[in-house]
Amino acid sequence: MRFLLSCWRTNSKFRVGIIILAVLIFIALIGPIIYTPLLKGNSPARPGSFARWMPPSLEHPMGTEGLGRDLLADYLAGLGTSLTIGFISGALATFLGITVGFFTGYKGGWVDAILTAIANMWMVIPAYPVLVALAMVMPTINIYTMSIVLALFSWPYSARTIHAQIVGMKQLSYVEMAKVSGQGDMAIIFTEIFPNLIPYLFMGFAFSTVGAMVSEVGLEAIGLGPANIVTLGLMINYANQWTAYSRGLYHLLLIPVGLLVLIFMSITLINRGMEEHVNPRLQTKTEK
Amino acid sequence: MFKRHPLLKYYLKKIVTYIVTIWGAFTIAFFLFRLMPSNPIDAWVKSLERQYSVKIDRGSELVDYYKEQFGLNGTLWEQYVRYLYNTFVKFDLGPSFINFPTPVQELLLARLPWTLALMGISILIAWVLGLLIGAAAAWFRTSPVSGWLTNISIVLSQIPPYLIAIFLVLFLGYTLKLFPTRGAWDAQYPVGLNWNFIQSVLWHSILPASAIIITSLAGWILSTRSLIVTILGEDYLMYAEAKGLSPWEIMTRYALRNALLPQTMGLALTMGFMMSGQLLIEMLFVYPGLGELMSRGIQVFDYNTMMGIIILSIFSVMTASLIVELTLPVIDPRIRKEIMS
Amino acid sequence: MKRNTLFSLISMVVIFVMLAGCGAPAAAPTATAEIINPPVIKDTEAVKPTATTAPTAEPTKEQAAAPAEPQTFTVNGVTMPFGRNEVVINDQVNFSVFDSFNPFIPNGVEFAAGWWQISAEYLWYVNYATGEIVPWLAEGFDYSEDYKTLTIHIRKGVTWNDGVPFTANDVAFTMNMLKNDTTLSGPGDTQYWDEVTATDDYTVVFKMSESRPRQHQLFYVKICTGQIIMPKHIWENQDPKTFKNFPPVTTGPYMLDKTYPDQKIFVWKRNDNYWNKDNMPKAKYVIYRTGPGADQQLAEIQSNNMDIFGMDYTTYVEKKAEIPQINLIAYVDPCPRGAFFNTAKAPFDKAEFRRAMSMLMNRPKWAENIWVPQSKPAVAPWADYRNLDKFINQEANDKWGTLQYNPEKAKQMLADLGYKDDGGKLVGPDGNQVKFEVGTPVGVGGWEYSMAQDWIEDLKAIGIDATLQNFEGPVWWGKVDTGDFDAGFWWMCGATIDPLELYSGFTSDLVVPIGETATRGNAMRLQDPELDEVVKKLSAINPEDPDALPLYMQAYDIFMRDAPGVPLIQTYYTTYSNTTYWNNMLSNQNLYTVPFNWWAQITFVLLNIAPK
């Protein structure tokens, strides 16, 4: 927390990123309050609730779309689910990555060698095609299974970052001291190493979240999203099914794409802000 | 022997890692696909039934015959050993299903040039530009232009090329009608080495290539800049500057050279990964590359085609990184020294 | 399997959409269209020989005079060496096979590229639009009294396009090839044939092991295509598993002229030695090509670069005024959409439960608000064709109420079965909440998917924990065949001219245990001795026999009671034709054959249109 606070104080990119993300999360949170009255008791994803392609009106501020649903509700609900999936899978991937990275980095030896080899093998397999195939055959896709699958393909990256940090830190004098003084592994990890890793954990989380969301959008955009909920990626897919290009309904594409770009931008800015905070040399302005 | 030849040991170790990683990735991919609950043959028989709108009682023999053709007979373990043998000993990836009985390697060869041309050239352009702009941004790191450039790069670096492509298609393709939005070339020109065809290919590649270039350029700018900024702060450069070397000499002789090594490594890896194609981009632009082939393969669960592309990708990533690792000690004396000690 | 809405995002052209078992371009329109219901199919044998039976209807619209005749024109970037007014252009999906015309191996021939449709010919055509069954390469058939011997009389004077006469030997050769090698893809019927022989040049005799009074229907073109016949003199010395059959020799009005693989075009030219001189087509060429993407389509329509094609209905409605030369044709597909249940798995093992589930399906709403163009709820497990009306058992419809949307009755039936509402959860007799998964091979946002989605909301409302998942075709059919599913939404390609086609797919001899692949049908795993009995009796009786109708009524009653699958709504599709260059093109008012350019019945359009 202290780390995040000091990032906020010192880094403008971090601030901008946080503000954009906070606004998006806020919109997603109050979304149900806005769209519930519009839906007359239906869930946002329910098709055929209204007549198709109604023009904007008081009842449907953005009109209805090709499946007879309220367009505004689509986007509000979609923003929420997209963010949720991104954060859950980001957190999962970070957790997996930390565990593996910690373990291998700290222990070293053959455990390290084998796990690193497996991580390397995993990483050279092109993830997206495998994800597409996997998503197609998965028995049920909901927010959680989707997050897990995405996490499975992004953990090696955070594992590697953490691993490198740990290996570096192990050699540091204070860790050596602790070892000599007879502290147990767990104690050393939690008292000496972990606090110094916190910035990297946050960065790993931001990085994994972006990574997971890139795949998420890629899957949803070809219609492989979770069932029974709306996501922003899915709205891109629908826009195409409704031939938004040739009918000139550009907003059907621009709104979901724009929201996604905002999400990616804000998380990247936050990530970069943290990086610059840890490694001030990266900064753009302060150097002399 | 290794004691006396540490360099040899280094090479051997790299080559062994290379072989083991390729084998491991191959194995993971193989089982990932085979364990998915689908197979192309049963699905095809089902579609025949619907086509004839009769029940195909002959189903089982038909299925058995084609399972054998596609290497889907026997236990999973037998399939694995056979496929491993065919791939690495006979260099035979089996018949494709989407274009039966054309061998997968033929399909790959037909698509490869398109992916190579589109991805390869875009990645290369982005890399060269990224290196130059990144170096400039590092050198003039105090100027506001550099600051803005870096900020824009940061913002763009993590956006999937696919989303950028939608923007480009919408504005440059539909609204302004500047560029073609689908296909790889204008069909009226015969494929071959003639100016019209080449021109048409370039014209059609502008939108997909831009989408790729924009995002990867941002990444290269950032990484080059941070590499060089780090180097510029090193003591020996301060010393060199004090010694009276011109900024240009410092830049080219030290900074750029030091940044070049990791960046080349990065380029090699990116080039390796492009073999699996930018699936979404190729689908959006209906581009006849490997990614579009992959999407067709996935649709009918054509194991052989899907594995073929994955193997090609694994192989090229690993080979690219092996080449870099083997040449590093040759071109960089510091690494050589590290190995020797 | 070709229904891949998964990738429909990217382009309509990349994609096949499965309609009624054949590929067709996707469309997602709205609003209502006037639908023409085909009349009754007339009696099989009483049809005159070679007539194409098309009315000489006048064009239905005021048409602009055809533009001045150009000697060449450009399509998909290729400049064709003939005039635009000499050719009919059919738009289709993304082609990938250009050098092979072998229908017996996987992907051995491009399906919707003209060969199946306008080059190959069949023994009989079922023309749903006029209600006729048109004998074409065949003149007639007889059965022996026990229906174990079928004799087909082949038309005299038919020739292959290389000049060799088409005879009974070709039919016998093709059938024996399929009978002797079951690894070739062909009909399952071959197992019932003891012997297929050509007793003379114009007579083929099938000797069968069982009574099969409908065996000749194998040679009907019902949906898309029928059983195809290969020229013996070309195929007899070839290995059918590797033979490319290029260029293909056929009997039809058109033969392959040229393919342009890079530009995705098949050019078919008129066979000037076509045997059917009275019906010589007027168009010298027919083009099947991969059509433009939805984005460029409108511009190409405005420049009249296509004659028979599919387009997005909503776009058509929006742009109608700009393209007055285009006819809209809305047509009832033979396959109503359907929901299916795995009757070997609880809770769907009880017929009452299945019927209750069917009563939670809001068919009227789906027809009105989901299907495009607006459709009608199904009243029987087949398409709204007049020839099938006589097989509807209205009494059974009323008695079981299977197709009525009636949540109250459904709740009552569930209560009778021992299901209880426990704080918003529907708890079964076993004490657990009712929970199942609904699958569909149709992509997210597809109409079948959306109907299932709406059904699930109704299920949740009564406390059932139901989830919906779409699968790629191969995966889904794999799950269905092995019984690894609870319920699914797709299409009910049951009956076209005879409901037995539907019922015979649900007999218990086809059932395999869950986990094994049902290769012979009845993946719903229904086991009902009563239905078996009726199907057995029906199979051995001529459908025209007066004793047949009561049996049909009984089968209908059992089917509605057992409800292994239930029809949802009528499937309406739209297709379009261009009147700029050709008179007597199809329209809703002038509909003389099935209007889809990927059905073999489209041949009749080519035989009937005239240049302006």
Low-pLDDT stretches of chain B are none
Helix segment count of chain B? 14
Average pLDDT figure of chain B: 83
Number of beta-strand segments of chain A: 0
Strand count, sense and closure of the main sheet of chain B?
none
> What letter string, H or E per element, gives the SSE order of chain B?
HHHHHHHHHHHHHH
CATH homologous superfamily annotation of chain A = MetI-like
Low-confidence stretches of chain A: none
Per CATH, which architecture of the domain at 113-289 in chain B? Orthogonal Bundle
Helix tally of chain A? 12
How many beta-strand elements of chain B? 0
Proportion of residues in helical segments of chain A:
over 70%
**What share of residues of chain B is helical?**
over 70%
Largest interface (C-beta under 8 Å): B-C, 55 and 67 residues
CATH top-level class of the domain at 113-289 in chain B = Mainly Alpha
**What integer is the average pLDDT of chain A?**
84
Your description of this structure?
The complex is a heterotrimer of chains A (288), B (341) and C (612). Chain A has 288 residues and is mainly α. Chain A has a single domain, classed as Orthogonal Bundle (MetI-like fold). Chain A is 74% helix and 0% strand. In chain A, helix 3 (71-107) runs antiparallel to helix 9 (185-221) and helix 10 runs antiparallel to helix 12. In chain A, 52% of the residues are buried. In chain B, helix 7 crosses helix 8 and helix 8 crosses helix 10 (247-273). Chain B is mostly helical. Chain B is flat and about 85 Å long. Chain C is of the alpha+beta class. Helices cover 22% and strands 20% of the residues of chain C. Chain C has a 5-stranded mixed beta sheet. The longest helix of chain C has 15 residues, at 447-461. The model of chain C is unreliable at 1-36 and 42-64 (pLDDT under 50). At the B-C interface, helix 2, helix 3, helix 11 and helix 12 of B face helix 11 of C.
A few lines on this structure:
By secondary structure, chain B is mostly helical.
Topology:
The complex is a heterotrimer of chains A (288), B (341) and C (612).
Chain A: H1 2-10, H2 12-39, H3 71-107, H4 109-124, H5 127-137, H6 143-152, H7 155-170, H8 173-180, H9 185-221, H10 232-241, H11 244-247, H12 251-278
Helix pairs in contact in A: 2-3, 2-12, 3-4, 3-6, 3-7, 3-9, 3-10, 4-7, 6-9, 7-9, 8-9, 9-10, 9-12, 10-12
Chain B: H1 6-34, H2 40-52, H3 59-69, H4 76-88, H5 104-139, H6 144-157, H7 161-175, H8 195-232, H9 235-242, H10 247-273, H11 279-284, H12 290-299, H13 303-331, H14 333-340
Helix pairs in contact in B: 1-13, 5-8, 5-10, 5-13, 6-8, 7-8, 8-10, 10-13, 12-13, 13-14
Chain C: E1 17-19, E2 22-24, E3 73-75, E4 78-80, E5 87-92, H1 115-119, E6 124-127, E7 132-135, E8 138-143, E9 149-154, H2 168-180, E10 193-200, E11 203-208, E12 220-221, H3 232-235, E13 254-260, E14 265-270, E15 285-290, H4 294-302, E16 308-309, H5 313-319, E17 326-332, E18 337-341, H6 351-359, H7 363-370, H8 394-400, H9 407-416, E19 420-422, E20 425-427, E21 435-440, H10 447-461, E22 465-470, H11 473-481, E23 487-491, H12 500-503, H13 529-539, H14 548-562, E24 565-567, E25 572-578, E26 582-583, H15 603-608, E27 610-611
